[in-house]
């Protein structure tokens, strides 16, 4: 979602979703390259982000999921104190990070490559796993890098998922298909 004052150019197909000021859709036969314009975004959840207050304290912001949105949205959403956040280092093991997730903490992954011998497990409603600076999760043991349980409102953002030497059936596993859930 965005707001644009003017648009020109592009390469191959252009796609705008929920963008104010986007040009009209066309197939490209007349008027340039093909362009798709979906007037509103059916469901959107902006990426969580971190801020620092005047008092020097960090806050994790989780923007609310929204429906049928058009244009940019700068509402900060839910503010979570860093007392409820574990900041992981790339030297942390999957076991150490999972212990923090099991306590109900949100996890921010600092930049680095995390070699995981087990998936990171998010099993609580509204938990956040946020990577900073190209945090890369390598699934080394033939398991997913991240497993989200049958829970609602989880956010996974800012991470790269990488296969290890041993085949994994998937790198991201989201529930088992029996939980319809909902975006929150």
Structure characterization notes:
The protein is globular, with a radius of gyration of 19 Å. The mean pLDDT is 92. The longest helix is centred in the middle third of the chain and has 9 residues, at 94-102. Helices cover 5% and strands 41% of the residues. The two termini are 18 Å apart. It contains one helix and 17 strands. It has one domain (44-173). The chain has one helix at residues 94-102; strands spanning 2-3, 14-17, 19-20, 35-38, 41-44, 49-52, 58-62, 66-69, 78-81, 85-88, 106-109, 113-116, 120-122, 128-139, 146-148, 155-163, 172-174. Strands 10, 11, 12, 14 and 16 form a five-stranded parallel beta sheet that branches. It has 184 residues and is mainly β.
Rg from C-alpha positions?
19 Å
Number of E-type strands? 17
Overall morphology: globular
Structural class determined from secondary elements: mainly beta
Termini separation comes to 18 Å
Q: Percent of residues in helical segments?
A: under 10%
Number of domains: 1
How many alpha or pi helices? Answer: 1
Largest sheet, strands/sense/barrel: 5 strands, parallel
Order of helices and strands: EEEEEEEEEEHEEEEEEE
Low-confidence runs: none
Percentage of residues in DSSP E strands:
35-45%
Q: How much is the average pLDDT? A: 92
